[in-house]
Structure formats: structure tokens, C-alpha cells
Amino acid sequence: MRQQGKNPPFAVVVAVTAVGTLGMHLIIPALPATAQALHVSEPAIQLTITLYLVGLAVGQLVYGPISDRFGRRPTMLGGLGLFTAAGILAAIAPSAGTLIAARIAQALGGCAGLVLGRAIVRDSATEDRAAAQLALLTLVMSMAPAIAPAIGGYATAWAGWRAGFVLLAIIGVATTVAAAMFLPETNEDTGARRSMLMPSLRLLRSGKFRGYAIGGACTTTSFYAFMAASPFIFIDRLHQTEQRVGLYYMFLMLSVATGGLLANRLAGRVAVGHVLRVANGIAIAAAAAFMAATLADALSVPMVIGTITLFMVGAGLASPFAITGAVSVNPQAIGAASGLYGFVQMSYGALCTVIVETWRPGSVLTVAIVLLGSAIIGQIALSFALRSGR
Fold it and tell me: How far apart are CA 92 and CA 88, in angstroms?
């Protein structure tokens, strides 16, 4: 499957792919202020993150098969339009219930970019080249959510909790217009008669796909457990300001970009199995150090930033290779594979946030257990995928 001479501008692919994750990261520093303004508890307002992740997960199951059947471009434009409309509703939401509903719709729209950005890259390149491009996509995408929390933190401090939601609505308008103007159709099989369910069922029966999907999810989205709890760790426990928390998030997300840069340089030069095992080993070591500091009651800003930074470098390094492996299992179902991979990934991220919010709420040890357990499971699953590939 190739794109018939059409070259999607990389900047546009990055922008539409980043929309879904921007929708989560930009508002994180505003969560405590949002809870106070809407007169709800902290766990209740965390639903704007947890249910957003659920929306990202469920929506990806739909967009992939639809784009395989009807094309990447129209499917993308529909999703971005929904993200924009829901973003406007979130910005003017009068209550927590309305805000949560708008966030779910926003996630269902934003996840189109997550699915189709990966599919467009894979449409346009061989497997080896796709790994390098996806690594570069991970690198550039990490910059946006790295900067977004800092912007969100300052916007909240200066203009109130609604500022972040207004910014997301503006981003939705801009990316929809850019996609409409510059994004070509890259799926040469558009319009082919095919079942939209069977490709996903076949992928689920593939041990190789399951290994990449589960391993990639455990490695790359378990840090959402930390992100959901981090405002309260930094602000309530470590007594940091909202502006500083935004800067901390920028540093953490830049570590994902560092992992993506390493992946881009290693793609095609080092065996995939070696890279994935090293990346997961880094994540395991970092999570173990974070747990040790938690058990020793030795948490500090440098300790938290240092260990989570290392964890996220491992995640950024592993992500492009896990994604490429998953979407290359069946070249005729790239969209379905991208969507199913994203569903597993975001579902696991949502599960991690639910565990943090419901199992000993406020406990940093719960976060440490989730991170370390996920890294270990990810190592086992990716090793299984590599064995299946051989």
C-alpha cells in the first residue's frame, strides 16, 4: 500500500496527530483550580482525564477500519471537526457534568489524529523507513505536550481555569483548516469492499500483534498514572506552584522526545529486539528507583523528576518500534491495526489512572506499583512478540 505520489506534509501530520494528546496535557495544571471553581472533589475532576483517555481508546477502534474503507482524509476531517465543536462546549461549560461530557466528545474527535497519523506514515513508507519516521513523529509530538502544560499552567494563573479549554478550541479550528487544505489521501485502497470487523478480529488472533500491543501499552501509557496524580503530588505534597508544575511537565515530556530521537537514530542500525529490551530495561530501573524513594519516604522534586524522566526516555525509545511492529503485521489492515493498537494503549492508560484514583487515593506508592508492574509486563509481552516474529 503506497500513497500514489502524494506526499503529506510532515508538519500537518504532526499537528493532527498531536491534537488528541494535547487535549489531555494542556489542562492538567488547571485540575485543582477547576475542581475548586466547579465545587467538586479532586477525584471527580480527575474524570476529565480518565474519561478522556477512555474516549481516546474507544474512538480509535472506529476510525481505523473506517479509514481503511473510506479513506484517511474524510475520516480525519470528521474527527477534527468533532474535537473542535466539543472544545468550544468545554470552554463554556457551566458545570462539571457538562465539562465531562464535552471532554468525552473531545476525546472521540481527537483520537482520529492518533490513529490516522500513524496510518498515513505507514501508508507512505516501507517498514524500516516507517520506524524511523514514527520515531521522528514521536520526537516532534513530544515537544507539543512538553510545552502545553507550561502554557496551561501560566494561562490558568493569569486567566483562570477556562483558559486551557479555550486554547484547545483554537487548536481544533487551526488543525481542521490545515488538514482540509494540505492533507492528501494516502490510502490507495479507498472504496474497496471489505469487512470493517474481520481485520480487527484477525489481528487479535495474532500473537505477534498482541505482544506488540500489550507491551507497547504497558511501556508507553502507564506513565498516565503518574500524570493523573502528579498535580496533587507536586502541589499538595511537595508544595510547588502551578507555574512550576507546568515547567516540570515540559521537562518530563522532553524526555519522551529524547527517547524518540534515540529511536530515530537507531532505526535500521540496531536490531529491534535489542532496542526494545534496552528501552524496557531503562523503564524498569527508573520505576524501581521511584518505588525505593517512595518506600524510604525520600520524595523530593529532583528525585521525582529524575526517576520519571528516565522512565519516559525508555517509553519514548520503545514506542516507535512497538507501533511499527504492530501496524506491519497485516499491510492490508494498517488503519485497523493502528486503531486497535491505540485502543489497547489508551485503555491501559485509563486503567492506570483508575487504579491511582480508586486504590488508596493520594498514595504515591500506588503510582510506583503501577509503573514498575507495567514495565515488567511490557518486557514480557514485547519479548513474546519478538519471538513470534522469528
Answer: 7
